[in-house]
């Protein structure tokens, strides 16, 4: 089996600047998971990309393919499966509109114990964006809105720890809720991270620029049919199992694909209503995730777990 590290993304577009750069990062192999609308022939021309066609994904597991459906970002799960079956020790999950900086690979820290700034918060949930003071208030997508009403008190300690997830941030156009984005004009943020940091509380991370170790990827699943909570609920779930996340400096900037803020708002509504209850339930028993998933999503998750055994 290969011991390479893999970068996994999905796309329906032609090869972008981001994918071209990711495909050239030393020590990492790029897997692009295509969809029905993806221009397959353009990707077959790349020698340094593993391109999974719809047929390839069906061969990996037809049952899971049928359960997830098409024309959705959750096809990325097939990239995770492929990388895991190839023996990957670490899997990065990225979006095709994130342009990596040339130090992307050099920022990798997940293979060792590191010194982090640890934030102890009085809230039940830590917002990894809350430590930055911008003129306009922003918070991470999927952060429970109820927590924003609580005045946060933070205490800091420095710790040496080993982690399972490295969630690197993203400059320019951050991953925030649609309800938050409605009040932001021409987002252009820079996150001045001087040291990796984490928290004593559960916190959201996305699938936009994140690296997971082998054990975590077995349990990390982008849930279909839960709107834009697919990766957010995945993050809460793996943390409830005991996997630990730290956040680090931006290693990409986002040249955001076209989005409808209104449509994003609709797709996030499930999270606005359920994120806090989900977290409370998961912290008592991770198996409670099944109470929040539509039947077809739960079946897909169970099939993914079977494949990853």
Regarding CATH, which class? Alpha Beta
Count of beta strands: 11
CATH topology: Spore Coat Polysaccharide Biosynthesis Protein SpsA, Chain A
Strand order across the biggest sheet?
3-2-1-4-10-8-11-5
SSE order:
EHEHEHHHEEEEEHEEHHEHH
Radius of gyration: 18 Å
Strand content: 15-25%
Number of helical segments with 4 or more residues: 10
Low-confidence stretches: none
Ends distance: 16 Å
Number of domains: 1
Determine the mean pLDDT.
Answer: 96
SS-based structural class?
Answer: alpha/beta
Helix percentage: 25-40%
Which outline best applies? globular
Largest sheet: 8 strands, mixed
Which CATH architecture would you pick? Alpha-Beta Complex
Q: Could you explain how this protein is built, in words?
A:
Helix 3 (54-60) packs across helix 4, helix 4 packs antiparallel against helix 10 and helix 8 packs parallel to helix 9. With 309 residues, the protein is an alpha/beta fold. The protein has an 8-stranded mixed beta sheet. A 3-stranded mixed beta sheet has the order 7-6-9, with no helix packed on it. The chain has a single domain, classed as Spore Coat Polysaccharide Biosynthesis Protein SpsA, Chain A, CATH 3.90.550. The longest helix is centred in the last third of the chain and has 24 residues, at 261-284. Helix content is 29%, strand content 21%. The radius of gyration is 18 Å and the shape is globular.
In short:
The chain has helices at 17-22, 40-44, 54-60, 62-68, 77-85, 178-181, 214-217, 230-240, 261-284, 295-307, and strands spanning 5-10, 28-33, 49-52, 90-94, 98-100, 114-121, 154-161, 165-171, 197-199, 209-213, 245-254. The chain has 309 residues and is of the alpha/beta class.
């Amino acid at each position: 089996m290969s011991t390479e590290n893999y970068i996994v993304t999905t796309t329906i577009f032609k090869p972008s600047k981001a994918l071209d750069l990711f495909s050239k990062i030393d020590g990492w192999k790029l897997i692009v998971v295509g969809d029905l609308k993806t221009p397959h022939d353009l990707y077959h021309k790349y020698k340094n990309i593993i391109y999974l066609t719809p047929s390839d994904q069906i061969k990996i597991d037809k049952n899971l393919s049928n359960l997830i459906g098409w024309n959705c970002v959750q096809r990325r799960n097939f990239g995770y499966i492929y990388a895991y079956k190839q023996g990957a020790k670490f899997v990065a999950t990225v979006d095709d509109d994130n342009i990596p900086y040339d130090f992307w690979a050099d920022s990798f820290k997940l293979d060792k114990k590191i010194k982090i700034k640890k934030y102890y918060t009085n809230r039940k949930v830590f917002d990894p964006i809350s430590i930055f003071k911008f003129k306009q208030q922003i918070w991470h997508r999927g952060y429970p809105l109820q927590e924003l009403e609580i005045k946060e008190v933070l205490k800091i300690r420095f710790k040496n720890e080993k982690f399972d997830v490295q969630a690197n941030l993203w400059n320019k156009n951050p991953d925030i809720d649609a309800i938050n984005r409605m009040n932001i004009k021409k987002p252009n943020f820079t996150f001045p991270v001087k040291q990796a940091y984490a928290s004593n509380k559960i916190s959201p991370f996305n699938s936009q620029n994140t690296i997971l170790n082998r054990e975590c990827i077995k349990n990390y699943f982008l849930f279909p049919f839960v709107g834009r909570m697919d990766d957010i609920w995945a993050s809460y779930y793996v943390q409830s199992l005991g996997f630990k996340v730290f956040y680090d400096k931006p290693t990409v900037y986002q040249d955001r694909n076209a989005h409808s803020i209104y449509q994003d708002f609709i797709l996030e509504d499930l999270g606005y209503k359920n994120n806090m209850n989900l977290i409370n339930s998961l912290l008592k028993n991770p198996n409670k995730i099944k109470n929040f998933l539509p039947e077809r999503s739960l079946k897909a998750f169970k099939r993914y777990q079977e494949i990853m055994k």
